[in-house]
Structure formats: C-alpha cells, structure tokens
C-alpha cells in the first residue's frame, strides 16, 4: 500500500507541482474510515502500526545551532527538517503505516509553541508541523494527533490552559488537586481549548495547500495524551467533555477518526457516538492488561488501539515478552494497531550522532544495540499491514541520511 509514490521534484516543494500531484487520484488522498471495529483504506482493511515520535513539532533533546530558535529553560527547539524526514523513511523501512506524535497537536505555553499565550498564534511553530505532515504524505504514512497532554511537559498541556484561565495549578503540587477537573468542566477553559483546536485544524499547510482538517494524512485526532482526573489512573474524564470535544472536532474536520485519549478504557464513554477508537498505554507490555481492555470493549463495535507501550527486555536473549505481546495484538481483529514508545533517529544533518532521550525507552534505528528489537517490531508491523513488498525476515534495510524529501517510483 505504500508503493504508489508519485514523483515530486525537489525544486517544487514549495510550488505548484506538488499541489498538482496531490490532486491526482492517489491512495494518499483517500481517507481512513471506520466500519464497525475495522479501519478501512481504499475498501481494504487497514492497520495502524508505527511509533510514537513525540517531538516532530517541538523537541527537547537537542541544543540547536547558534541563532536557531531555542527556549533554554525548557530546552525546547524545532526539530530540523532532516530529522523529520529521516523518521518517515525509518517508519517506511520498518513496514509501519503511521506515527502518533504529541507535538503535532500539543504545543502551548512557551515562546516556541503554536500558542505561546492564550489566543496568540506563533506562525513559526507551524513550520516543522507543516513539514512533518507533508513528509508523512510523501512517504505514504498517516498521523494520529493528540490535542492536549495530562502532564506539564515542555510542550504544555492541561495545566497550561488552566493557568491561562486563572487557575494557578501545576503538575508538581497540584496533580491531586480536585481543581484540575476545571480543565474539563469550566466553560472558560473549554472554550479556550476549542479556540486552540480551531487554530490548529484550520491552519493551511503551504506544502500541500490543505488545512490539517482537510488533509487525510492526519487520519485520527485524539482528545489528549493519558488524560486522567485528580487521581492517577482514575480515568475521570467527563463523558460530556469527550462528547463535546468530539462534536467540535468532527464539526471542523468531518473526515477524522476521533480517539478517546483517556488513560484507560472508561466504560461510561462507550455511549459517546463521536468516539471511533478506544485505547490504553502499557508500561510494561502486559497481555493480561490488554485482554482486560479488550474484554471491557467486547460489547462495543469499535476498534482498539495500543497507543503506547514500553519494553525494557533484552531482545538478544530469550526474553519472549515482546513477541508474546505482539501475538496477542495480531490474533485479535478488534485491535486496529499499536505504536511503541518511542523512536529517534540521527541528529540530522549530523548523520553520525543519534539523538538521545533520557526515559530509558529510546529506540534508534541503525543503532546495533537496538537492531534485534527493531527486527521483532518490524516483523510485527509487516504481519499487521500484510505488506507483501517487505520481507520481514531479511536484514534491516539501510535508511539513508539525510533521507530523500521526495520519492520517485
Ligand atoms: C462493513 O462491515 C460489514 C460486516 O461487519 C460488512 O458486511 C460490510 O460489507 C462492510 N462495509 C464496507 C463498506 O466494507
Ligand atoms: C480568546 O479569544 C476568545 C474569542 O475571541 C475570547 O472570548 C477570549 O476571552 C480570549 N481569551 C483570552 C484568555 O484572551
Ligand atoms: C502560584 O502558586 C505558586 C505555588 O503554589 C506560588 O508560589 C505563586 O505565587 C502563585 N502565583 C500566583 C500568581 O498566585
Ligand atoms: C489553495 O487552496 C485554496 C482553497 O481551496 C484555493 O483557493 C487556492 O487557489 C489554492 N492555492 C493554490 C496555489 O492552489
Ligand atoms: C469514567 O468516567 C466517568 C464519567 O466522567 C467518571 O465518573 C468515572 O470516575 C470514570 N472512571 C471510571 C473507572 O469509570
């Protein structure tokens, strides 16, 4: 399904040639749609398999060259175009079909954000997002985009909106404060959040001349990342809020699939018609927890997505937990896919240095230390996508650095 690339001349990246090409009938212009518990693309079942690449819109892992935009207090900078393109090339080489990326949607509260302050759009912050959406399209990949984060990381999240509305709350100190529910319940906060969503989805990408709402590359919008109430894991995300945000998103972007980003499967959300996909995260991978989630969802004719999972086993030895996890996913047709946590590449244009992230889950394609695990992941992706063009047992293909920004058949 990823084989139908059209020639996009390098010189035309900013010009009309790319736009004309994108108007051809092309699988990339077709939407991923839901039929009951199955996602479909081009009238065939489609699986969403890939990686979390949380930094595509805004990064925290690299000190950029002098003179580049940089917000030192949060170590925030824009990823280079070459880093973004290399990730698309890697997912392609791994047989993946999509990426889940927090900062394509969550970017509030610092000078480099889409919204540094309430109602204030920063046009510069759209550039890496535009590029990521365009490059995903070039490589035939799809994107799942969360709108807010439960935490208070460099890219902002629910606490940013709360502070903007006058609630002086932060994750350190207030995580268990019942007032955090004002994010969902306070009309002023909800309205500001909707204005933000609107500014994101109505933005027109100059590389494609499509708004994010229009572009089928973004196939799914997720309420948020790991949303909770005041108690960790309480899944206390008001049903009415999920419905309200779902209606708002689908009003602006009728073609998108809508993901319930509650941290866990909350049965009270099953009645929300606007939700297309339920999901959960797994640290560590757990087939027991996955089975529990799928049992909870058994009565609902909607698909399930394992949005994050961390694995610290040793692929070089006999640790079988990752293959067992994948077998469970592969055997249940209700699971529409999964995205592992989390993928990095080189610090392009420096092709000799990998970007490091400090959470212990960094996966670097091309790093010999990660190759055995990446091979297992790749076999799983190919099983899920049934991409016959990939021989999953072969050696991992080289991904060029820098990777091409356009592809010819
Ligand atoms: C949707 O799924 C049902 C069975 O679940 C099938 O009968 C029907 O043909 C499917 N529709 C499309 C458009 O694929
Ligand atoms: C943001 O803009 C909306 C709509 O114009 C307005 O109602 C609201 O008061 C503004 N909020 C802030 C915090 O500036
Ligand atoms: C917000 O709360 C912090 C810590 O609780 C406090 O130090 C600070 O002064 C407060 N800021 C405002 C504007 O009330
Ligand atoms: C971009 O799309 C808009 C809205 O569909 C259209 O009016 C405009 O002519 C397009 N621009 C180009 C360069 O094709
Ligand atoms: C699920 O959501 C409902 C409605 O918002 C909430 O009352 C409940 O605490 C949540 N958690 C569980 C486990 O149902």
UniProtKB/TrEMBL annotation:
Decide whether keyword S-adenosyl-L-methionine is in the record.
no
The cross-references to InterPro entries, in alphabetical order and at most eight, read: GH (IPR017853), Glyco_hydro_5 (IPR001547), MAN-like (IPR045053)
Subcellular location(s): the record lists: Secreted
Q: Which UniProt keywords apply?
A: Glycosidase, Hydrolase, Secreted, Signal
Q: Name one Pfam family in it.
A: GH5_mannosidase
Q: Which residue intervals define the domain Glycoside hydrolase family in the entry? A: 113-268
Q: Which reaction does it catalyse?
A: Random hydrolysis of (1->4)-beta-D-mannosidic linkages in mannans, galactomannans and glucomannans
Recorded superkingdom: Eukaryota
One MF annotation (Gene Ontology) recorded for this entry: mannan endo-1,4-beta-mannosidase activity
Signal sequence, start to end: 1-20
Primary location recorded for the protein, binned into one broad class: secreted
Q: Identify the EC number(s).
A: 3.2.1.78
For this record, an example GO cellular component is: extracellular region
Q: Where are the transmembrane segments?
A: none
UniProt xrefs under SUPFAM superfamilies? (Trans)glycosidases
Instruction: Give the family this protein belongs to, as stated in its UniProt record.
Output: Belongs to the glycosyl hydrolase 5 (cellulase A) family.
Record protein name field: mannan endo-1,4-beta-mannosidase
Question: Organism source for this protein?
Answer: Apiosordaria backusii
């Amino acid at each position: 399904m990823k084989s139908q690339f059209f020639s996009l001349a390098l010189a035309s990246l900013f010009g009309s040639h790319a736009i004309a090409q994108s108007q051809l009938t092309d699988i990339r212009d077709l939407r991923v749609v839901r039929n009951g518990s199955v996602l479909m693309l081009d009238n065939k079942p489609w699986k969403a398999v890939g990686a979390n690449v949380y930094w595509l819109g805004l990064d925290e892992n690299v000190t950029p060259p002098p003179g580049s935009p940089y917000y030192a207090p949060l170590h925030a900078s824009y990823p280079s175009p070459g880093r973004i393109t290399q990730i698309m090339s890697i997912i392609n080489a791994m047989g993946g079909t999509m990426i889940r990326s927090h900062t394509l949607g969550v970017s509030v509260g610092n000078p480099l954000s889409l919204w540094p302050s309430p109602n204030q759009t920063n046009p510069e912050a759209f550039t890496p997002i535009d590029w990521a959406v365009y490059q995903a399209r070039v490589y035939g990949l799809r994107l799942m985009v969360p709108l807010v984060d439960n935490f208070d990381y460099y890219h902002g999240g629910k606490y940013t909106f709360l502070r903007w509305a006058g609630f002086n709350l932060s994750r350190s100190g207030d995580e268990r404060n019942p007032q955090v529910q004002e994010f969902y319940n306070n009309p002023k906060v909800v309205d500001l959040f909707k204005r933000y969503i609107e500014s994101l989805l109505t933005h027109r990408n100059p590389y494609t001349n499509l708004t994010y709402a229009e572009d089928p590359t973004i196939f799914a919008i997720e309420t948020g990342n790991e949303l909770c109430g005041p108690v960790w894991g309480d899944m206390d995300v008001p049903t009415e809020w999920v419905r309200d945000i779902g209606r708002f998103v689908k009003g602006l972007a009728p073609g998108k699939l809508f993901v319930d980003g509650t941290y866990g499967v909350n049965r009270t959300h099953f009645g929300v018609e606007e939700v297309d996909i339920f999901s959960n995260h797994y640290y560590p991978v757990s087939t027991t927890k996955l089975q529990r989630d799928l049992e909870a969802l058994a009565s609902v004719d909607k698909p399930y997505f394992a949005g994050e999972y961390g694995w610290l086993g040793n692929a070089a030895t006999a640790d079988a937990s990752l293959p067992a996890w994948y077998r469970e996913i592969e055997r249940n047709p209700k699971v529409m896919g999964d995205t592992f946590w989390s993928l990095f590449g080189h610090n392009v244009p420096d092709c000799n240095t990998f970007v490091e992230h400090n959470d212990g889950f960094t996966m670097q394609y091309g790093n010999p230390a990660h190759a055995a695990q990446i091979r297992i992941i790749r076999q799983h992706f190919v099983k899920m996508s049934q991409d016959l063009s990939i021989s999953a047992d072969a050696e991992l293909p080289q991904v060029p650095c820098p990777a091409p920004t356009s592809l010819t058949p």
